[in-house]
Amino acid sequence: MKKFRINTAAKILLCTVVLSSCSDILEEEPRNIYTPEYFETESGVLGGVTSMYAHLRYIYGNGYWLNACETGTDEYTYGHAGDGNFKDMDMSGAGNLTPSSSRADVLWNNAFRNINTANGVIQKGSGVGVSDAIIAEARFFRAFDYLMLAQTFGGVPLDLGSGELAFNISTFRGSKRNTVSEVYTKAIFPDLIKAVQDLPVGARVTGGVTKTVARLFLAKAYLTYGWWLQNPNGIPTYPQTDRVDPNGHNPQWYFQQAYDIALEGINAPGAYGLQATYYDVNLAQNDRNKEMLLYADHTESSEYYDGSSHSYNTGASPGNFAAWMTTWDYTFLESSPTPQWTGSPVRTVQREAAQAYGRPWKTMAPTIEVVKNTFANKTQDSRYDGTFVTTFRGNWNKAGISTPTLYNANGLPVQPGSAVLTFLNDDPAQTIDYSNSVYKSNVGAGVLPGRADYVIAPSGISRYAYPNLWKIGTYRTDNGTGLGQPNGGITRPFPVAKFSEFYFIAAEAAVKGASGAVSPRDLINVIRARAGKWRWDNNGNVAKVEDNSGAMIAATPSTITIDYILAERSREYYGEGYRWFDLVRTQRWSDIAKTYSIGGTAVGNHTAQTYTRNIPNYLYLRPIPQGQMDAMDMSSAELAAYQNPGY
After folding, report:
1. Looking at the whole model, is its pTM more than 0.85?
2. Which domain holds residue 134?
3. What SS3 class is residue 79?
């Protein structure tokens, strides 16, 4: 019996986009409904293709999806204001992950809509004169969504109501899940192979998918499926199936394919490539640079086309609000109008629409181990400086406060632009005075002799106060001389895939046994060499032209392991939503993220506590969302069989 309650009919799409024949910009024409007849026209099919790019904004840039991908890994735990959305994902006993609380629902609730649109484009496109290259864009996005779904939930439905991979125009209230191997071999691989064949070398539109983009995801799919077939730690899959490839290949064949395709991407990059420095990869003024293969795009020019208020976003898609989750409430920092600390204090670091600051929702905090261990090398390796905000500078003048000088730690003067608070790179030899008995930071920060800035040591990082995630932070060009609109939706594109990942995929495949001309060490060293090159000290706010690439290469171990690759991936992609997938793919989640330490939620709590996570094997698959379970017309036994075990 074919029943499916995921709203897959084309008519449920919120908008479509019409493509101008003489423009390389995707121009949106919002629509309230799609009708099946609309897909019988060229404009309808083209609109469906463009809506696939828009669908990325409902997943990437959504702060709850970032939470699902990061909280509970070695990169993030819940912050001061983290509620059940975050505590349940942490696996540390503060909450319990359930089908109702898992924020992987963000993916499930949006992917199937897009898949059905892709089904329609692929099925109808050639009949209305749409080129194979444009249909290949739909194939890419269908494979993209199925790859994300299979990694997150295991096997998922290929039949949305009208047959496997067929366009569905009716609403069902049931579903049958395919196995993981079926999803890969029937949908993901064929679509991506065809996409590589038919997509152009150069993008049809700004941010459009190309051969290079498709190659990256084909290589990633081969790598991920090879791990799934091999299953070194005996992690259960669901629906249950023998881990035998229907195409007759063994894991080694897939690792070799991943390596070969990744090398093809490196050697035939098209318009893509690595940025000269890591700082430039994530600098807001350099968004949409050649290293960005795929992104969920946004625009500052129009709320209408951006789909989000630019003055006050409520924390909902399609707005970009992910960075808010990783931002602590720095706005409580205070300084004094007098050296003696008399008079009413002044809030010295105001909420600003700037990459270092933005709106503080304080729900996700980095662990102490991230600062001390993952980013242990902070002097040669530029990635810590290019990832976090560790220096919070005075900007009270932008709020209309005319006082030119205020007084901070040790009664020393600070001016706009001065460091008010610094998260130190290392624990100092001298004891930090966190008492706040005289110099009242208002956030529990400490004082060291001779310094005007308050300080917090790495061992003093807490759920209350921690470095912000700079790389995905707010950026606006319309602030003028003021603070701008920090409560508005972030108008930057959110990165989905980067050219640099070709090197990591090839290196990981080589460690898993793939052979080729380039060793895993040489591949990783391309990334590490770039990390050693500086042109700007971000937190020092000063030029720093320095090349530490030789030292970075020399420090790379002679034998590259999976754990070393995972550590390098964390340094490269920290906080971007990769981590849970990396740890699950390699089956290292329960080992690498097992324990972490951090201070408490109270102001001034700098006493680190160690937490132990409980990550049994069933958690390697997220639960099917409760909303999906409730919407299906199935028996209790059928529903129980549909849900992933353990939930």
Report:
1. yes
2. 10-70+104-256+622-642
3. coil
